[in-house]
Design brief:
Elements (H helix, E strand, L loop, with lengths): L3 E6 L2 E5 L6 E6 L2 E6 H4 L18 E2 L8 E2 H8 L6
Antiparallel strand pairs: 1-2, 3-4, 5-6
Length: 84
């Protein structure tokens, strides 16, 4: 219980066992795997009190201390123009 089933090759299914605390689901070589959180995550330091739902780490225009919009706001505004 808790395994992830994925297609590892044409007509081939594989399972990824459930991870452990301190890991996140990532991808290596095109296949899902569990990675330790510390290996790929950013650590915020200093004054982070300004991070809110509108001004957050998922921001666009990250060159400024206050991103102009976050990813979700951008997608909502541009979704009618995005085609599959």
């Amino acid at each position: 219980m808790g395994d992830i089933i994925y297609g590892s090759a044409a007509n081939t299914y594989s399972t990824l066992p459930i991870g452990v605390a301190g890991e996140y689901l990532g991808v290596t070589g095109g296949l899902p795997d569990w990675k330790p959180i510390a290996s790929d995550m950013w650590v915020l330091g200093g004054n982070t009190s300004g991070i809110t739902g509108v001004n957050n780490i998922l921001g666009i225009n990250m060159v400024s201390a206050a991103p102009t919009e976050n990813v979700f706001q951008w997608l909502r505004a541009h979704a009618p123009y995005i085609r599959r």
